[in-house]
Design goal:
The structure holds 2 protein chains of 2 kinds.
Chain A lengths: L19 H10 L1 H21 L1 H11 L2 H23 L1 H4 L3 E2 L2 E2 L2 H22 L4
Antiparallel strand pairs in A: 1-2
Helix pairs in contact in A: 2-3, 2-4
Chain B lengths: L5 H30 L9 H9 L1 H28 L5 H25 L1
Helix pairs in contact in B: 1-3, 3-4
The chains are: A mainly alpha, B mainly alpha.
């Protein structure tokens, strides 16, 4: 080791403020908090459903509190961010080779968005919301 | 070759992320509609109970809850490292235990319906 090693000061807890690219990376990573929170909400709904009609309907009523509406809105934004960022890297995660050529990434991304749209519409229709 | 459990948790992470990408936004939207007083028919007690009583409904909800939890757990483990928390073993135990417990509780709830 040289006598005066170059030590670059990088904060372990705030490094991602150094560049917008790092912030975008962190914005993708923290979507997991909201996906996890929604899984716990589903678990909670299931528990109240198992308890019976009165318990489940008080759960539905509690959903209508302003704080709950706001939280669900935030969860929606972050789950959409997870979806778009997940689909946008699919050409890198699973490139499609045809002969010598690779299928252009935009087709792979577009296919994912199309399936996402159809699946979302199908769920809305099945749930009786659309 | 050193044994590693990384492929298992990573495949759960990737499967959960893909499932969450396709399904989480629309499922959250259903709950948001309910929160706004326009609950979709499926979220009424009778319909959701009937859906969950069917084996397909049980399987669907179990897969969704379990994969979302394992996806979140694995990504949170990595993200906490990025936020400067360097106790990886302790973090891994905590997040995976929560995901495993959530999966088990989902099974128990589903068996009661």
């Amino acid at each position: 080791m040289s006598r005066r090693p170059y030590v670059r000061e990088v904060s372990k807890t705030r490094w991602y403020f150094r560049h917008p690219r790092y912030l975008r990376y962190m914005s993708r990573e923290i979507t997991c908090i909201f996906v996890g929170a929604f899984a716990l909400l589903l678990l909670c709904a299931l528990g109240r459903l198992a308890e019976g009609q009165a318990a489940y309907e008080s759960f539905l009523a509690a959903l209508q509190r302003p704080w709950s509406i706001f939280s669900l809105l935030v969860v929606l934004i972050f789950t959409v961010h997870n979806a778009t960022s997940w689909f946008n890297v699919t050409p890198k995660a699973m490139p499609v080779q045809i002969g010598e050529e690779f299928l252009p990434g935009k087709f792979i991304v577009a296919a994912h968005y199309a399936v996402w749209f159809v699946v979302s519409l199908a769920v809305l229709y099945f749930a009786g919301a659309a | 070759m050193a044994k590693s459990n990384k492929p298992i948790v990573w495949s759960l992470f990737a499967a959960g992320g893909t499932l969450a990408a396709f399904l989480a936004p629309v499922l959250v939207l259903l709950f948001l509609l309910a929160a706004l007083g326009h609950a979709p028919r499926l979220l009424s007690y009778e319909q959701l109970h009937a859906f969950t009583a069917h084996w397909f409904g049980k399987l669907f909800l179990l897969v969704v809850i379990a994969l979302f939890l394992w996806h979140a757990a694995h990504r949170l483990r990595v993200t906490l490292h990025d936020f400067g928390l360097r106790r990886d073993t302790a973090v891994a135990v905590v997040v995976y235990v929560i995901a495993a417990a959530g999966t088990l509780i989902a099974v128990l709830y589903l068996l009661r319906i």
